[in-house]
Amino acid sequence: MKRILALTLIPTAAFAHPGGHFDQPFLSGLLHPFSGADHLLAMFAVGLWASVTGRRAIWAMPLAFLLGLLTGGALGASGVALPMVEPMILASTLLLGGATALALRPDLAVSLLWVAVFGVAHGFAHGAEGPAQGWVLYALGFVGASASLNAIGLGLGLVLTRRLIRALGGAAAVAGLAMAFA
Question: Is 17 within a domain?
Answer without folding.
Answer: no
